[in-house]
Amino acid sequence: MAEQLPNTVPAVERPRARRFARRRMPALAGLAAAALTVGALTACTPEEDGPEGTGGSSQEDSGGGNTADEGAEGAENSENGEDGENGENGEDAGNTAGGGSSADGGDTGEAIDGSAGRLEVGTDIPPGLYRSVDNDFCYWERNNGGEDEFESIIANGTVEGQAYVQIAETDVYFDTEDCGDWTPVPEGVTGEQATEIPGNGGTFMVGVDIAPGTYKSAGNTEECYWERLTDLSGSLDSIADNNFATGQAIVTIEDDDAFFTSNFCTDWVKQD
């Protein structure tokens, strides 16, 4: 199994809630992800078993970053021989999701420039699951190449902090503007499965970044939004459950959930 990179939690102030209208998007698409990042991930060798990287139908479709469209950067690719940027400073993350390191890209390919603009899928960027962190008003889009600018959008997201996206082989273009580099997430990826989730931490992979179970988040305002996702297809059917929370929120993240997103909530603590 590949060596895990060290976990650190940067001192990040809770950002003020902002609504984005950079592009025409589906309802609730302006929800932002926070500047906290998820824990270290490692890729298993073929001889070792690891949880499914995406779950559900996320290997076929993709999205990430907002309610109907969900959201990978960390260490440099192993070929560069460099340690992750956050590996030598900060505090140990413990059991809290928000590590600042990601999986070693291994043979899955090098990180993609997050400000590259329009990329042709299969030529400029391989299809697959990607993660980008440390974003500040990042915009990404999966596009089918149609003539109509809006109708050609398969899924998109405007995020701060972290985003996951699954680029399908049938996608024609992938647009990325002002994002952190997109790092490939290997199949069979494993992680620490944290039991505390930053309430403004963006999107987390269930069974890898965070453990399934029942979580509580107290003292929320009307800005708090959370959702459980079965995959990254970007469709409304992929949302297993979601809500805007005021006061205390209780959420049970199921074993078969693929991702959990939390924006502008207080931290979530596992109860069981």
From TrEMBL:
Comp. bias intervals (Gly residues): 52-66, 96-108
Superkingdom per UniProt: Bacteria
Positions with biased composition (Acidic residues): 79-91
Annotated spans, Disordered: 42-127
Name the UniProt record assigns to this protein: Uncharacterized protein
